[in-house]
Design a protein that fits this description.
Length: about 80
């Protein structure tokens, strides 16, 4: 995280409620880098060495991770209320 901070991709902020918790936020530069890495050309390059079965397996795993994270975030939002 220190390297990302030094490259101005993220900022670190102390949580106002929990003193031992840091909040990590993307900077505009970090957002731009994320957008570039989500471009279709990026994925074409990354997946070019995978066969169809491997691509489908990876897609399935990523979808499960995304769904679990969305569920976790929704649960956490309710806890904060």
């Amino acid at each position: 995280m220190k390297r990302m901070q030094s490259k101005e991709l993220i900022t670190l902020e102390q949580d106002s409620e929990w003193k031992n918790r840091l909040r990590v936020k993307l900077t505009e530069k970090g957002r731009q880098l994320c957008e570039e890495s989500l471009a279709p050309e990026f994925f074409q390059e990354v997946f070019k060495d995978l066969n169809e079965n491997e691509t489908n397996q990876l897609k399935s795993i990523l979808e499960k991770l995304l769904a679990a994270n969305i569920k976790r975030l929704k649960t956490k939002d309710r806890e904060d209320i």
